[in-house]
Amino acid sequence: MATALTPRPLASFVRRAAHLLPGVPTADVDGMTYAVESFAEPGARHAFVQTVRSTLSWSGQRLDGTGRLYLLADVPVLLVAGTTDAVIPVAHSLAAHEQLPGSRLEIFDGTGHFPHSEHPQRFARVLLDFLRTTPATRGDLASLRSRLHWADRGDGTTTATLSPV
């Protein structure tokens, strides 16, 4: 039984089972299959377990990057979201876009977590247009440090906040 649950046979089973589910994009199935197959590598398994332990709890995702979006204030940002993404809801991308002045948001209707796989030509066009039309910025560690400082939240914890420049 243990042999039957090794990454490659498990990935094959997941691929076959997921293709039977209505509404699951093929690219999402392929992406998940690739991820499961990568667990054959002990280092990849360990990295995945560490990531899950640090970002998920029984009540769901506990990782929230919105508190650090200000660090991207001077960086060109392209957000690409799929409306049927079950991993990162499109609402999260919309919220990030609102918090990042000057960011560009591209929403792929009817697309899951892997828009670059489901619609590679469109994704390439969007990315190339972003690269062509977005002025480059030059950041340095000193300016980033000047923006970052720790603030007391009033509840016994601290958070990184934007320091006025």
UniProtKB/TrEMBL annotation:
Alphabetized InterPro entries for the sequence: AB_hydrolase_1, AB_hydrolase_fold
Source domain of life: Bacteria
Pfam families cross-referenced by the UniProt entry: Abhydrolase_6
Domain AB hydrolase-1: 11-125
Protein's name in the database: AB hydrolase-1 domain-containing protein
Lineage, opening ranks: Bacteria, Bacillati, Actinomycetota, Actinomycetes, Pseudonocardiales
